[in-house]
Amino acid sequence: METSRSGGKRIVVTGATGNVGTSVVRALAGDPGVASVLALARRRPSLTIAGVEWHSLDLSRPENESRLADLLRGADAVVHLAWRFQPTHDPVVTWRSNVLGSLRVFRAVRRSGVPALVHASSVGAYSPGPKEEPGVDERWPTHGWPDAAYCREKAYLERALDSFELRHPHIRVVRMRPGFLFKETAAAEQRRIFAGRYVPGGLLRPDLLPFVPDLAGLRFQVLHTCDAAEAYRLAVLRDVRGAFNLAADPVIDARKLAGLLDSRVVRVPRPLVRAALAAAWRAHAVPASPHLFDAVLRLPVLDCRRAHEVLGWQPARSAEEALSAFLRGVRRGRGEETAPLAGRRTG
């Protein structure tokens, strides 16, 4: 049950300065059932949000585990969002941050007596599956695509949470498995993550993109980040457990992308695109690895009925609206006053 602010909940959010984190802390801070939000990040931002207290903490460092446990004491729930996407050429670095850092969060939740853990999993945790609707529900295997570090790490943490829930059934565990998450003010970060630091956002103009490649398997789901944040808010405040798929309609394919970009669709052999991406990645020209490209083309379509029926969640924006916000943000160099989301057009 949601309570008044005077007797509201104390929530801790890790990874609070990123795409999802900034939206989640705003959603929680604006809820009368939440008394306070403690936002943790590697680098403390200049961003100010009413009702949010910021602390800097690097989860990849083993010596910070005790401090983390101290910060979590008295919390009613922990929302664990912290994730590092790069460097893709050194998966040991991301493993230390994403996997070992997450395991530290799980242990700190137990040590501090926090009754609820809401963990950011992903569509990337799922094994390859069908691309057609109605899609797979939360019972689909979560073994990821083993060649992609992102999927491998998300899948590993699913197994860790399986064990955690068996050992600690008194802790309410929720796993959020969204599709791709976009908003206007995260566009600069996402451009840097996937296209590289020096690719100008102005290149995403219709007159400079004469066609969209139609690749076998190019069907994926997206969601506006603020709609995902609403699902996290509900998961924190309602007595729910288990996994929830999150995505908005419609499923995005080459034709829908071409419509958004006022472009045309051209069938392109997948091996040709993969080879070009692999060459660019090996040359450190782009940060997105060919292994992630392989994974994206194998991701299943999600069935989100459980989130609608159990969580009581519905997205307020369509998938096309979420993508349009991202494209608008890329062209304008939009960002926020946090290190991950710093906005700029190039560099």
UniProtKB/TrEMBL annotation:
NAD-dependent epimerase/dehydratase domain segment(s): 11-184
Record GO terms (molecular function): aldehyde dehydrogenase (NAD+) activity
Gene3D superfamilies, per the entry: NAD(P)-binding Rossmann-like Domain (3.40.50.720)
Cellular component terms (Gene Ontology): cytoplasm
One Pfam short name: Epimerase
Official protein name in the record: NAD-dependent epimerase/dehydratase family protein
Organism from which the protein derives: Streptomyces halstedii
